[in-house]
Amino acid sequence: MVSRLLIVEDDRDLARNLIDFLELQGYATHHAADGQTALSLLAANDYDLVILDLMLPGVDGMSVCIHIRNQLQSRVPIVILTAKSEIDTKISAFDIGADDYVIKPISLREINARVRALIRRAKQADDNAILTIGGLSLDTGTMRIERDGVPITLPPGPTKILALLMRNSPNVVHNLAIHRELWGEERGDTHAIVVHMHTLRNTIDKPFDRQLIHTVRGFGYRIADEQTSL
Fold it and tell me: Most buried by CB count within 10 Å: which residue of 84, 107, 136, 171?
């Protein structure tokens, strides 16, 4: 089955280059040159991935991303495509639900690799398993997370890490494995792992009376219903 991509980019030349290149790779594409058009297309179609520029006329890319996650309740992979390289902008994008962040000028081959990796991981997701550690549960089909009966909402990046940690509990998950879970074999922003783990700790552990997430310095992280770490 052909994967369908939505490319939201107001630079017509860049959009055309992306469309031509990705269609040569076998993808079907739709294009929106502004945020409002993107919202209309998202309401009418199902996509396997969205490539989303931040600086758009009218409704900006951040608002589109928030709409996808909150209003549409969609887990479709989102790749942010922007000239903004500031760390605060990256953190904001990940916090509202972006899966990846690519800074212009872009490499078409790199974009294709990131798109391929994200779609592959989305299709390989386990639709049945309910993972539980202590009072924490994660339904990998619906991506519903609860701890001690309290619903928890996380952006996609931290959710992927949480599922990886829970599947491997109580063993240590190395930083390289987390990197591969987020970006496959491609180069990623390693600082984003630190940001995601900070989000996880603040959401999964901080409001509750015992620690589940443990840092194993020099190796990675583990999740277990105990206070000690390896």
Answer: 136
The pLDDT tens digits of the residues spanning 37-71 come to: 999 999 889 899 999 999 999 999 999 999 999 88
Q: Where are the alpha helices (DSSP H) in 108-174?
A: 108-124, 156-168
Structure tokens at 10: 């107001």
Taking the CA atoms of the chain, what radius of gyration do you get in angstroms?
18
Q: What is the CATH number of domain 4-124?
A: 3.40.50.2300
CATH no. for 130-223:
1.10.10.10
Neighbouring CB atoms inside 10 A of 102's CB total 16
**The model scores a pTM over 0.85:** no
> Residue 79 belongs to what H/E stretch?
strand 78-82
- Where are the chain's structural domains? 4-124, 130-223
